[in-house]
Amino acid sequence: MKVEEIRWKYGNDVRYAYAVGVIRVLETRLLSRERIDRAADASDVEDVIRILAETSYAEHLSSLTDPGDYESFLTKERQKALDLLQKLTKDPPLTDLLLYRFDFHNLKVALKEKLGKQDLRTAYVSFGSVPVSMIKGAVKEEDLSPLPPPFRQVAEKAIRGFSDRQEAKWIDLVVDREMYQLLLSTSRREGSLFLYDLIRREIDLINILSLFRIRRSDQKRGFFRESFLEGGSLSGEFFLPLLDESLEALYGRFVHTPYREVVENGWEDLSANGSFAGFERMSRDLILEYLRKANLVAFGVEPLIAYVQAKENELGMIRTIMVGKLNRLEPRFIKERLPHVYL
User: Measured between alpha carbons, how far is 257 from 215 in angstroms, rounded to an integer?
Assistant: First the structure.
């Protein structure tokens, strides 16, 4: 199906009148930049908790007895947002895509445990649409029939390929490739232009990160072709010449794309600090910039999707702050890793 032949939907869905009203109220409770900075400047993790206790996070923080157990608090908050998603949605095929990411994560973990002989029992997450026990059991017993078709087919591909490759990263490549194709095809079939373009933007940023990594290593075209994700707005033919071109030429190729500043500033940060953290932060900022388009939608699923993604971003910032405080990092180092807030 060609993109231009699709009857795209974007807002104006009155079924979401109540849902959008709920979301607009909840958006006012998201953390401000000032609050995030206060938490980053806090003297220790206990002080961070005191600052967060002044916000909508007070409910779940009240049961946190050990500050080092902050993941349990974040888990409850994430589950709360996902439960809201399922309660308010009128389009489960679309909003379930936000849950599929957790399912595919769990599938990768199960495959690495089985095929790579790794102990990853603590790496599973409980937020997906498929029970963790089902995924673990199907892979462990080598009986994939209980899995829903998309996950079964991906697992079969990964297992077949692993017999030749014997590399854990092969599992990541196969599962990520199939996951993004499923996300694209479903959002396209359901006519969600907002979600379709969001996924394409994510794919582009992953491919740009692969380009960065390969330019910093000895790996070249073969590995890039293998790791390249199809479906973004930038094709493989766009990327391949950039493996060998000068930085000036590379920058020039991105001038008329949404990624110009990410590429230029991300590469400069990587060269200065030897870390991809800056690029990853800028990528999250670019995704948030896109999500803000949902603020212009009066009625539709878009504000619901954007809110859940914004909440994920906020929980990620809290995790970064907590980890930084537990490791006694200076506030400036913590702030360097924090993306923008949604509103």
Answer: 20
User: Which residues lie closer than 8 Å to 304 by C-beta, 6 or more apart?
Assistant: 16, 19, 20, 23, 85, 88, 89, 95
The domain locations on the chain are 3-98+190-336, 99-189
- Label residue 328 exposed, middle or buried (CB < 10 Å: 0-12, 13-18, 19+): exposed
Considering the entire predicted model, what is its pTM? Answer: 0.92
143 CB neighbour count, 10 Å cutoff: 10
Answer whether 308's CB lies under 8 Å from 82's CB.
yes
pLDDT along the chain (343 residues), means of 10: 68 94 96 96 92 89 80 91 96 95 96 90 93 95 93 91 79 93 96 96 96 80 84 94 87 93 90 87 95 94 97 96 94 92 89
Q: 3-state DSSP: the chain helix, strand, coil percent, rounded to 5?
A: 70, 0, 30
Tokens of 30: 């998201």
DSSP 8-state class, residue 192: B
